[in-house]
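Lecture 7 notes: from sequence to structure.

We start with a single chain of 65 residues. Read the sequence below before looking at the structure.
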Amino acid sequence: MTELEEIVREMEGGELALEESLEAYRKGAELVAHARQLLADAQQQVRILEDQVLKPFDSAAAEDR
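Now the structure, written as tokens:
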């Protein structure tokens, strides 16, 4: 999250060249996708725990849903 915040600060500063801005955008998009996956995994784990049934969690199976 810290890395993403730093990218946003750099881009908002307006000091990056076009190529640097594009690379920063790509990296930021990758970080956002990773954070979304972590959130989805955590939400699935909570759903499992809420059912009061402790089951093994397979994040690859969760991606297929």
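The mean pLDDT is 86. Keep this in mind for problem set 3.
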